[in-house]
User: Fold this.
Amino acid sequence: MSNYKINDLNNSKDLIQSAAEILFSVFQAINPTSWPTYESALDEVNECLKEGRICLGLFVNDELIGWAGLRKQYEKTWELHPIVIKQAYQGQRWGKVLMEALEKRAVQEGIEGIMLGTDDETFRTSLSQTELTGDNLFIEIQKIKNPGHHPYEFYQNCGYTIVGVIPDANGKNKPDIWMWKKLL
Assistant:
């Protein structure tokens, strides 16, 4: 892997703009409704930089190629929101590098677990291919398949477990897949 470093993102105008550009461009390819405009992505970056949150940037040869944020959800379990890596660097283990750094930082801050929601708004998992009900929900979670390269498998490879699903969270057959990892 190239020369890289992990640093806190700060209120540098250039860094904030770069982070917003990454978020906007990556999600335009995945799901344009997540951050439909550059301005909405910029708002998200500024939200992640608020006091009491953790926001780390991944730099390769001094270029910001990705970033991730953590925000308090519960006393000892925080929410990952978001994580993003530039398209040109995806599939090269940079996401895992960033996750490991974020988890290390979380442990230093006394955070014991990280949870995340990974929406399937674009019908990329088997969970979006069936009507989820109280009767079949846990069966469908156990036999989940990933025909559309949904990121839940990336999180599983980082040690996260599916702990639940919110059926129809984002509309008919568009579930939110909830995942969690114990850090300590």
Summary: Strands lie at 4-8, 54-60, 63-72, 77-85, 113-119, 161-166, 176-182. The mean pLDDT is 96. The CA atoms of residues 123 and 174 lie 7 Å apart. Helices lie at 13-30, 38-48, 94-108, 137-142, 152-157.
